[in-house]
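Subject: Adipocyte plasma membrane-associated protein structure
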Amino acid sequence: GSTYSSKVFRVTFFTLAASLTVPLLGVTVLLDCPIDPQPISLKEPPLLTGALEPNSKLRKAERLWENQLVGPESIANIGDVLFTGTADGKIIKIEDGEIQTIARIGHGSCGTPEDEPTCGRPLGIRVGPNNTLFVADAYYGLYEVNPGTGETKMLVSTKTLVEGQKLSFLNDLTVTRDGRKIYFTDSSSKWQRRDCLFLVMEGTDDGLLEYDTVTKEVKVLMVGLRFPNGVQLSPAEDFVLVQETTMARIRRYYVSGLMKGGADMFVENMPGLPDNIRLSSSGGYWVAMSAVRPNPGFSLLDFLSEKPWIKRMIFKLLSQETVTKFVPKYSLVVELSETGSYRRSFHDPNGVTVAYVSEAHEHNGYLYLGSFRSPFICRLNLQHV
């Protein structure tokens, strides 16, 4: 009798499952998918051992100006005065602990993804030789901002076609010491910043560009990068490092010397998806990870990378906001040596103190941690880690 009843149960279960799955599949086939993902081949993530050994050092950071600013993505300083761009389109100055808005590139209301294209979203921010700020606004373009007067000057508009391509998602920039050349990334000619999860999942490619402040020319230096993100000139200004977020790696492009115009791999198969990169006082680089690829552990990004059909199913049924909730909260910053080896790493498993790091900016013995989502800046005393 028991085998008969288990058989009945199995038949009933499979009939039920099929009766639910078939319409669901039918609906899924009919639904539009916003992305057209390409299979991406990643190596198995590196083991978190040695310099990458998990710790909780980021939890020693203090949260500053909590709930007084929103999404301070990138940080720059002139002396002890800090500057950042926030999710509500503002360029902000923090002096003696006081927050002041110095400029806005966009206009209108801010607060929802729908508002972003008019509100503006300042991302990468750098200080030029005349103590003006160079800012990459994701929607509007490349700007020079006078921090004293708040005057903004457009250098490159996103309305300008560059070699036939439109700029849809300006992201980060790095400036030569003489202020002549600005190297910047356009993360996508298809997706805007508010759709960056689509960009990560789709794996479309874009490039690294150069703006010459004297000739006013924009040149494309590299193409075929999957989600080009943070950029950093080397201390000798002979090459630019560019983070290729979707591929979990850093590429190097030579801007002077014998190798000029050539490119190679600087670091591949990183333990997370690299966001911004900045110089460290040791002559190396600080890299903030926007997401981790745990090993040992389960990496959702790696699991999905070669399965475009699963990505299609997911994005037919779920919004970007919903999918983001499945990405584990784990904050990670690594310090690389000048040759790209791992020097040390700071972790905050589960993102208890520091959630979502987009940049680590070193100033005066402290690491200031920017975040594209958190309502604060974190500060870590490097003497105490």
